Amino acid sequence: MTGLDRASGVADVVPVPVPPAPGPSLSSADDARAARAARARSVAGTVALYVVSLAAAFAISALLVALTHGSPAKVFPAMYRGSLRSFGSLGYTLDNTGPLMIVAVGAIVSTRAGLFNIGQEGQVAVGAMTGAFVALKVHPAGGPVLVLALLAAAAGGAIWAGIVALLRFWRGVEVVISSLLLVFVAEQVLFYALSRTFLLKEHGAGGATLTESDQLSSKVQLPRFGTYPHFNFGSGLLIAVVLAALVGLVMTRTTLGFRVRMLGHNPVAAKHVGINAARLGTVALLVSGACAGLAGGVLLTGQAYRITPTISNNVGWNGLLVALVARNNAWVAIGVALGFGALQAGGGFLSTTGVPTDLVNVIEALVVLAAVFPPALQEVLRRRARRSQAVAGAAA
Fold this sequence. Notes:
Layout: H1 26-67, H2 72-85, H3 87-112, H4 120-137, H5 143-171, H6 175-194, E1 202-203, E2 209-210, E3 224-226, E4 232-234, H7 236-253, H8 255-265, H9 267-272, H10 277-304, H11 315-325, H12 330-347, H13 359-395
Antiparallel strand pairs: 1-2, 3-4
Helix pairs in contact: 1-13, 2-3, 2-12, 3-7, 3-10, 3-11, 3-12, 4-5, 4-6, 4-10, 4-11, 5-6, 5-10, 7-8, 7-12, 11-12, 12-13
């Protein structure tokens, strides 16, 4: 018996050497380095593409300024002075940022669910209208009335978006079409409310009447931080930041957010795992409308203090653009909304240079195109590469 202790009859324990664990081979290390280098090249290419796109957008903007007999050397510094140069202009930028961010957050929720709601402009107007009705008709004025007015504004926007959901899941009407058409209906409803004394029409001095509401009491206005004309901003910005953070967490860290994203990515797979598309889609549209309505309430109680036919002032459209540029990311939307708020604030100073203030809308549109061009181009290139690989595989 080999290895047997003849004296004790116990087998000797012979240690067997254990080979060291194999480390990464040279080829795998090279592959890892190549992958890191490829990612670095991809990021660098994306950044360069964004820089070139934005530079082209501003170059075209400068050309348009020159064609309108303005001076780019005066226009862009004027926009900077009106938006970021002083504490007062920075506060104005923050005031413009809040409503845009609120609208964008709502648009992100519905778009992630695969429902492209583009009726925020009308939902902002309806929200401001319902909020004004509560703020002006409920007495005595005070903090509780302010909260009720903001809740009423959110409810008004949600109801208006609920019509879109009803048409979509009951009659099969596309969300894009119904939400867009309801913008024009909302404008007429608001004008009607402002032309009737028992609703929102202002009682002017000497029997004169204007197409606007009475001014809100100071007790139902959102508080401001800071002192005028120094750095000061409205609390609507805080509402927007909290809402953006809440939606960002829900969409990325909860089961509800996962279900919403699944519905948007693949409705068929969502149905197979038990997701009710009509129910969840309705919730997404209601949230989107409520956010737009709340933005109208913030505009009313934090900036305008009375409602007019132009209370929305393109906040709905621009908030939708913020969501588009942010690529439906609530966290990114915070920074994008700040940029759009700066453009809007700086646009007020264009009149000092002799350039039409509407040029700001053109510049915003160019910035949006510059922001969406890189991912669109990259997607086209990826699809072409996949088709080329498929053709090469079929030929082989």
